[in-house]
Amino acid sequence: MRLLSMKWVRFVCGVIGLFAALSPLVAESSGMAVLKAAAPQVRYWKPETSGDSLWTVAAQHVAVSNPPKRKDPKIVPVLYHNIVFGRTGNIYNRDLYNFESDLGYLKRKYAFLGFQDLVDIHNGTKTIATDATVVTFDDGDLSIYAIVYPLLKAFDIPATFFLVPTFIGQVGYMDWDQVREMDRYRNDRGEKLFFFGSHSLTHRLLGELPADEVLYEMQESKRIIERELGGPVIAIALPFGSGSGDKQVLEAAKASGYLAVRTSKPAAVLASSLDLMNINAFNVENYSSDVFVQHMLRITGR
Ligand SMILES: [Zn+2]
Q1: How far apart are the CA of 139 and the centre of ligand 1, in A?
Q2: How far is the CA of 138 from the centre of ligand 1 (A)?
Q3: N or C, which end of the chain has less CB nearby within 10 Å?
Q4: Which alpha helices (H) appear in the chain, and where do they start and end?
Q5: Distance of alpha carbon 290 from alpha carbon 147, whole angstroms
């Protein structure tokens, strides 16, 4: 009896397995095709593709970009690391769909700036009439080239990427060819959208290093990125935010020729009181995009 029942179990499993194996074929050739068509479509990004449905969502955001005018415009840079599909491994990952929603929100509510714009605002040669953000990415993860780059092109959103030269070309990071391609990119109006800054040479805690090593981290990373891209590197983002406000670190930044230092403090500043040696940035973690919006409203006090 016991043997017989095991045979029966095997038989049932076999039938189920056969059905599972054949079901795609069955679905193709019968009324089940209706069920199959109702399944959600999977979207994915191909860097050199355009004109298909993939971009239409982004195009709508481009069309509605009209941030509200403000008497007291505020600047709140945002900071990302890796963009991933689906479930995130840690707070440095952000899901693609939430990231796309973030971009749509930013496009509706904020103007976009680069670090040269911040320098110009500080020097009084540029003014803004709306709240503004600076989209930044730290570490040079490969998802920047694979996912972020095509998406930002579709949204026509500028961004600044902070690189660690010793990470470039490592597994999971961009290589110099990819960085150069992004650096060369110009939009339909001939504008440069993507800028690169330093995130130190080896990604150590600059606030805890001796002065000569801090200086080397800053100078050597700047020299390498400028050599590879052929243009000036004007901003540095402090790894882990370490050394923000530290006299030794800021002196080293100035001595290395940086015009701006980005920290990771989640705060907005009035455009009229910008401190170039302490540019805040809101590190966006792996919550849903509506939580991101709540954080932005809280940070800006809007
Ligand atoms: Zn970092």
Answers
A1: 5
A2: 5
A3: N
A4: 2-28, 33-37, 56-63, 96-109, 115-123, 142-143, 149-155, 176-184, 211-229, 247-255, 289-300
A5: 21
Q: How far apart are CA 161 and CA 144, in angstroms?
A: 9
- Give the pLDDT confidence score for residue 251 in this predicted structure: 97
Whether pLDDT at 71 is above 60: yes
Q: How far is the CA of 8 from the centre of ligand 1 (A)?
A: 58
Q: How far is the CA of 171 from the centre of ligand 1 (A)?
A: 16
CB crowding 119-130: b at 16 or more within 10 Å, else e = bebbeeeeebee
Residue carrying structure tokens 């709240």? 131
Centroid of ligand 1 to alpha carbon of 4 (angstroms) = 62
Over residues 124-144, the mean pLDDT reads 97
pTM of the model: 0.82
Please give the distance, rounded to the nearest whole angstrom, from the Cα atom of residue 236 to the centre of ligand 1. Answer: 11
Do 243 and 260 form a contact (C-beta atoms < 8 A)? no
276 neighbors 259 (Cβ within 8 angstroms): yes
- Pair 156, 103: CB distance under 8 Å: no
Decide if 228 contacts 180 (C-beta within 8 A): yes
Query: Alpha-carbon distance 86 to 96, whole Å?
Result: 7
| Dist. CA 126–CA 143, nearest whole Å | 33
How many whole angstroms from 199 Cα to the centroid of ligand 1?
A: 7
